[in-house]
Amino acid sequence: MHRSPLHDTHRPVRDDGSVPTGRRPAAPFTPRDFQLVLLRRMADFNPGPVEDARRELGASPADLREANRRWQAMVRSPRSRPALSRYRSVLGEPESRTPRRIGDLDCEAWQWPLPLWPDLRFEVLTPAAGGAVWNEWLVRAPGAAPPPLRTVEDLTPWSCTVDEAARAFAPARPLEGTAPTRWGLALTAPDARDELRDVVAEFTWGLLQRTAVSEPRR
User: Fold this and answer.
1) Closest among 59, 57, 77 to 14, alpha carbons compared
2) Which residue, among 62, 88, 83, 75, has the nearest Cα to 16 in the 3D structure?
């Protein structure tokens, strides 16, 4: 007996997160959709800037959720393409590919521009031989001026990246994030009255989201 597709719970999932239905194909996953994915992860910490950015992209809350659902389907699909290929298919050819050496390892830094953050680049670190992805986050764009980071008050949401905060308030101690796209730093910084405070800074996709600041040291 013929089985209706409406009752088929074992239909395959495409790499773009859609399910074949015999109807029109799903729309391609675009750089706009990818920016919505980044925003969805940031919304848990900072809904205000995320709402402003979402409106700038002309997207609804439902668009935000749908982009994240499709991205997760791509990542988790057993037939999903390798991570580097996935970024390339969504974001296109990188703006730059730069050799980099980290410790004893040779790698390449692939960078793409994203309209929401013109002074940043989305960076993927991959072994020189290619294929795998070691790290993926937002970094300052080449030639863009870094933010002035001198006091606790300068550590505002979206003001800086992980490496900028770590350099400005060295020595900073990395903290384990609560998800693969999250990082933390424990650091000490002066406040506007030049009193030292202990700070825990939390980042999503490499961009500062929020801080927890102690009372002044005695």
Assistant:
1) 77
2) 75
User: How many Å apart are CA 172 and CA 187, to the nearest integer?
Assistant: 5
Q: Supply the DSSP symbol for 144.
A: P
Q: Which two tokens stand for residue 126?
A: 């991959």
Both tokens of 39, joined, read 């925003």
Q: How far does Cα 6 stand from its chain's mean position?
A: 36
Strands 105-113, 96-102: pairing is antiparallel
> What is the tens place of the pLDDT at every residue in 113-155?
999 999 999 999 998 766 688 889 999 999 999 999 999 999 9
Q: CA distances (Å), 152 to each of 5, 157, 160, 190, 208, in order?
A: 57, 12, 12, 6, 13
User: Residue 146 is encoded by which pair of tokens?
Assistant: 């870094």
Q: Angle at CA 81, nearest 5°, toward 140 and 102? A: 40
As a 3-state breakdown, the chain gives helix, strand, coil percent values, each rounded to 5, of 30, 25, 45
Q: Say how far apart CA 53 and CA 63 lie, in whole Å.
A: 13
Q: How many residues does the chain have?
A: 218
Are 136 and 122 spatial neighbours (Cβ–Cβ below 8 Å)?
A: yes
What is the separation, in whole angstroms, between the first and last Cα of the chain? 79
3-state DSSP call for residue 105?
Answer: strand
The structure tokens listed for 132 are 């795998």
- Give per-residue pLDDT as tens, 39-88: 999 998 888 999 999 999 999 999 999 999 999 998 888 776 778 889 99
